[in-house]
Fold these 3 entries.
Entry 1:
Amino acid sequence: MPTKAMFLMIKQMLQRPFTNPFPVKHAPKDVTSLVEKIQKGEVKIHPPVPVPEGFRGKLHYDPERCIGCRLCITVCPANAMEWIPELRKIRHYVSRCMFCALCVDVCPGKKFPGEEKAVKALSMSDEFLIADYDKYSDNLIEEPPEAKEKGI
Amino acid sequence: MAKTTYYIPVGPIHPALKEPIRVEAEVEGEKIVKVDVKRGFAHRGIEYMGMKRNAIQTLYLSERICGICSISHPYAFVIGSEKALGIEAPPRAQYIRTIIAELERIHSHILWLGVIAHEIGFDPLLFWTWKGREKVLDILEAITGNRINYAMYMIGGVRRDLKESHIKALRDMITYYWEFTEHMKEVFLSDPVYKARTRGVAQLSKEMALKLNVVGPTARAAGIRMDVRQDIPYDAYADMDVKAIVPQDIVGEARGDAYDITMVRLYEIEQSLDIIEFCLDNLPEGKILAIPNYVALLNKIKKTEGEAIGAHEAPRGEVIHYLKYDGTRDGPAVWKVIAPSYNNINSWAPLLLGAEVADIPVVVAYIDPCMCCNDRVAVVEDSSGRLLDYSYLHKKAVEKTRKLEKELGVRR
């Protein structure tokens, strides 16, 4: 006895895939050479799906705007912020971050002379491709440049 | 000829299980004659962590208790905290909270419908239902910024406002889901194959359901009219008339089997759509946070004493948070969580007894179990059954570390 479910499933078989497309249509034999080709511009890949407005991606930290109030350290649920007492700035470990954006809400920011409103030191970027082999790699730590120079 | 029984241990780590739990069954042919369910493999000590942090940090920690319903626990937490601290959220925030909670119920129920189709071996149906689920996840992503772990709630309100574009998208979504639910009803409830695999399987009588203390859709499928939204209304649910969905209202009688629970969940999706529509029509204007400054909020928490229970009807049943603030620190002094799966997993052992081996997936999946929610305490027993206390375990752990250090030659 044909049922509604059968028709739906057969219809589904004939439709185009609903999922987002893979970067390339078929799995490549050699990923490294594919990446090289993409960098040279020989092969085009499907771009990542655009993120919506208000997406909470990797945290961006602007040390110039940081006033050292430590409010972000108070509210951070994952303890991803570290206080650098020598510089009176913070260091942020992206690998510990849980992307709740509480620190962005609470950040008072700093007003440079000539500006009308204070601009926050912390902001959420659109960046979401943050996979890495090393959790302490440069890509995953947001800190003032002086901290790296002095090795604090 | 003597009967032979075979012992089948499943779990705690098993390809068929998404989360750790152990089921030990003895089978005689195809029939299960003895069954034991052991849990406690996913205990993470979240409540203890919460009692060491401030309330805002704990709220976001509570979002991570459950892997799939990331609004249920924060909802119960904010309701309990607001009662204990004497804060009232502005009306607009209450309505937005209700909308988000109902959106989550829709996505959780559709997820379950896909899972049950997968468990009976009907995988095309799984893909079809999850294809329909994408729409609500897109809406949640647009409103809150993420598909899961929304970080939307705050003690005394919500953090993000609904914009005009969101309201328009929500109305589009409601139209889409009215149509999609109609299709789903036709596919699930009138399909002979689905009916054959679920009718009479995992049948829980009303008496049994009351005895086992099951909650949520499991209890409603057995014919018990219980729903936190109806019994203890909170937020926007107090302004509308939410009635528990029971099978006897739909088809006249409640059998409490997997087919009935499918029906309850399908009709609850429609109820959620009605609730969202009501909230959108009556959305009040105004601010969204009672205390917008988090530092002021933490200072208030530090000065306030009080205790309360927050309850929320999660997609799987009622979730209860007990909170006590003692007025000395800015976080909860006591925090206790009871998740719906804790009660619902009780029904596995009696339902599996006498069932066939092929029905195990349906029985296990029909309550939509969540192991990480239900493991709330871990106790260790020695071989004679005596409970070992914390200080003894700590002493033993230190001893073992010292012993290993000595063996491995680690210098301190």
Entry 2:
Amino acid sequence: MSSSEMTSPEETPLLEVRELSISFGGLQALNQVSFAVEEGEIFGLIGPNGAGKTTLFNCVSGLIQATSGVIHYEGQPLDGLPIHARSLVGIARTFQNLNLFHGLTVLENLMVPVEVRQRRGFIADAFRATRSRFGESQAREEAGAILHLLHLGDLRDVMAGELPVGLQRRVELGRAVAQRPRLLLLDEPASGLDGRETAELGALLPRIARQLSVTIVLVDHDMALVMRVCDRICALDFGQVIAMGTPAEVRNDPTVMSAYLGASGAVQVAQR
Amino acid sequence: MRFDRQLLVRAAMVIGAFDVLYLLADHVGANYRRLMTLSAVDGLLVLSLVVLTGFVGQISFVQAELNGFGGLLAGAMIGRLHWSFWVALPLAVVASVAVGIVVGVPALRLRGLILGVVTIALALAFDAWVFSLDTFKAQFIDRPSLLGWDLSDDRATFAFCLAVLAGCAWMVANLQRSKTGRMLASIRDAEVAARTSGVDVTRAKLLAFGISAGLAGLAGVLLDLTIGTADKQSFTLLISLNIAAVVILMGPNRVASAFAGGIFLRWGSEILDKVGVGGKYLNVVLGVGLIVQLIAAPEGVVGQFSHIRAAAGRSLRRRVAAT
């Protein structure tokens, strides 16, 4: 394992996964996985299908429990924190399978995470109190600004479920960004996108990371995208870390090459 | 200011509609007046499912029982304890909310068909056991007066029930278009994504069950007021199933469905009788209507109507613009 963690001792990483193991019945989905993601970086997570990438995301966002091991966020252990509370402390994610609020408009999809952060009960809403109207217009503005950033401004009043896949992915990204996260977990944001859309995404991610000071963990099968935008990459195979380092280091790692051999990813990696 | 003018226009329209309905109720005679009052009461019951099924996508076949719980509990407080109607009403509503939250607990883990079956089991428990308790024996309810306004006049009863329905519908519509409504819709559309977006799904679902049960319980108290008795015969699983069918037929996500549903439930059999079909076939109409609606108008009758109205509005604007 060519681990090249550049953790400086005085700085706690934003996300630290330590010896994380998860098994479903007899299947070992993750096996003693450890890595740390530093504040401000774009961290790639690659590996063939079934390597455990989504399982890892599910564990960080609280959808499943680890069998053993710990996850630290901002230096604090995450276990026991319910799913919605993890969002409130700054962990946002997107889903591999699209998961939009399809009966709401694009703007409303982004307003949900903004508004749950406002302290206001249902009684104010029932009477359309000034507080309710004020919070709503604030949320509208904030969500609108994010849509603008993602070039979705023209679609704000379209029902989210009526959009094509590529745009739905972008709305999901917007909904995650609307949570004002410190840590953004993106699960295959480029899948289903055409070449032009993927290129746009590749330009967008570093901009989001910089402008909104978000740390990004990116899972994707598009190696060109991952290699281009990530500062560091961790490669998983069969639930284990097989390589970690800069894109150049991981690309030339023989273990990674063999893990991908035969898969279309290997061809892509080899060609570049 | 534009906003204030809009509000004035709306208020005028509501008052106008209220007056027209009141004049109608005054004109039609006691029998139809009673049907109109019962329509408003049932509208409130349908509204309870608009919140639960329409807003947050939960199934409940226990609404008529929550309706009955409110009505019978108020009946017990009035008939047995001789409390004032105006004390019994809020207490019965609060108690219904509490029961509704308890009923909502299974919905935190179950969904869809299984949840439906669990609520049916709860409804049967109410029908067979809770409602046969001595506490809930049938009671006569004397109509009270409200700040000198005598509700024993059935015109006044109608006006009161309609005003309560209108007020509740206004609040539910407000919920739908604000933070609470969007939060509930996010759970309905993608529960996992709602959670990871920061929505406290447990709290939100119990809130919806509580509001829904409160509306159903309130409808129960108003039913006492309208028919003058609190009697368990009015609250059975079959009625729960009917209400669920009606709310789906009308379109569960629309507040206007409460009005349409209330009218359908109380006037449907009356109209069938008048045209010579026989009121007992109302459920056949409901069943066939549901099938047609699921194929032809997935958003329900009210939803379809508003689509047609929007299309008509567009073509009208085009025509106006063309001239």
Entry 3:
Amino acid sequence: MHVPARRVVRGLGLLCAAALSLTACSSSGSTAASGSGDASAGASAVQAALAKGGTITVWAWEPTLKQVVTDFEAKYPKVHVNLVNAGTGDKQYTALQNAVSAGSGGPDVAQIEYYALGQFALGKSVQDLTQFGAASLNGTFSPGPWSSVDIAGGVYALPMDSGPMALFYNKKVFDQYKLTVPSTWAEYLDDARKLHAANPNAYITNDTGDAGFTTSLIWQAGGHPYKVDGTKVSVDFSDAGSTAFTSTWQQLVSGKLVAPINSWSDQWYKGLGDGTIATLATGAWMPANFVSGVPGASGDWRVAPLPQWQAGQNASAENGGSSLAVMKASANQDLAYAFLKFADAGPGVQDRIKGGAFPATTADLNSPAFLNTAFPYFGGQQANQIFAQSAKNVVKGWQYLPFQVYANSIFNDNVGKAYVSSTTLAQGLKNWQDASLRYGSQQGFTTG
Amino acid sequence: MTVADPPARSRPRRSARGWAGFGFTAPFLAVFALVFLAPIAYSIYLSLFQDRLIGGTTFVGIANYRQAIADPQFWDGLGRVALFLAVQVPVMLGIALLVALALDSGRLYGRDFFRITVFLPYAVPAVVATLMWGFMYGTRFGLVADLNHAFGVTLPDPLSPHLILASIGNIVTWEFIGYNMLIFYSALRVIPHSLYEAAAIDGAGQWRIVAAVKLPAIRGAVVIATIFSIIGSFQLFNEPSILRPLVPDSVTTSYTPNLYTYSLAFSGQQEDYAATVAIIMGVLTMIVAYAFQLRGMRKEA
């Protein structure tokens, strides 16, 4: 990729005079990426790099990686890992994009969420890992996360964690109002009505419009709104899966049955603790957040499988989850890949499970020790069994847009209207679809 | 400041004087060029390109300007700040003027206390002020919620989409009344007292003095304060940007032109188009501010 000098200070525009004297061509920074895809040669180069040692920089916000770095450095004393928290999610992606454009200043390894990986793979900012033999790790990871890193014939990251969805519910509230744990979204709607009628301050859940949540439920319902084929993208929120979501969720929103509280706000934690938010349908990474964010409600909450769109089905979806990728501009890619393998498919996985992370590795998901872990917070429930089952039931074939980071940033501009005005969810999604496609064609994609 | 008469010219060599002057101003010019002219030139340069995920960077001439002129999101944002300007600025300056006149009247008990109290909100950083108001506006746990509970009423939600602009106006008014008051008050303090005495001898009451002496005397300060406020309104960014995480459905990513350029550059990776929108906004702001200045100064003359 040719990067003209003018992009060196993109987004800043202050140091332009200095910038003009720089020339940057990001591809020149990479090591001998032969491109031959010779996996065994790649693997031996990785071993050689570990023996030789060196320093790599990792940008990640995942807290459990700290222990992984300690253990990695203990095992390979010549290697030094510089773990940097460059911000969570969007903030880090902005910094990463700037570093990629500048051709320097970026990390060797970056944490990238699955929904955002496509954007970096397409921009050729992250290295295809097949040359290191990453393709052979296919069976190591559960299918959902793997399909997210396996993009157009390349493997652009290794899955770090995953977020198969489940329904977290406040058992105390359910018992008090004699609600049954819903097995379908229709029953969920009934519970929502019953609960709110019995206690006007209580809501089945909170929702103010969340792109990740909405797309995950459409994913579960079997929708495929995004179709990506190389540089051809299409968006269609009128398919059966999307319609199944909007017809049920519209009733929750119109009936004011969802609390108008933003997730991760102080009000939200308060609501989860005092029973005014009765359920959360979210990813398996949630328990650690319950323990740290809502300690007072320990013992109140339980985990159930995600309600179904049709009775008797066993469909699930992913919500959140991240991968670790090797940056193309890294001068130490062999070492970077060694760290990836250690953290995501090696001894690092155990460190991370101990720290409360939900792994993406099949062996750990199936290990009795993992499955039989009792969660004191959930009254001793073996919640991992539900999460692991959910991971197996993730509907296959879901795709995100190659510019999903931007699309999600304008979700509330469009779909958010449905939560605060008479606009319907279906109309909001249609507006989001149009805005996303408009951006896509501005960015040079063929849209249709 | 004293202005000395120019001494008799000793006729130095012209070129030497020219170089000496340049030598004195060079440090300023260098910094001025680096931090002021260069960013503007760079923005203009950026605005002539388009950088795409597929296809990379291409020179597109004035295509970005064409796109911006036809961009409904840009015009929506501009319309919003124009409405803000038309309503909030007169209210804020009116209150500031009233307070300044009251302080200056000499009839206020505890004048120094009021002066510092009214000025105090300006000393609160905009980020803190906005967060504080954001909490107060809350209908679940904030001041509005407490009022609802205490009086058994349901006040309209200040953070709902159709009231949020007024709520932002309230925050900005609260923040900047003290600042504008101080401009007016200091202008009032320099009016010679002999004018008041002359007016009193002519039989003018306090209101007459305000209308005939004080207001005409501080016209310049009012024009300056208004120009600052026009620029401030067009550049509205802090308050909506900080409220956005609290109410993402009410404050869109293109709520004001500045917020729009920010979103374009940092989440959309469209720095070129963001630069275009910023330049158009800058030119529009200059036109409006200059037009107002011409009008204000002409009346003064």
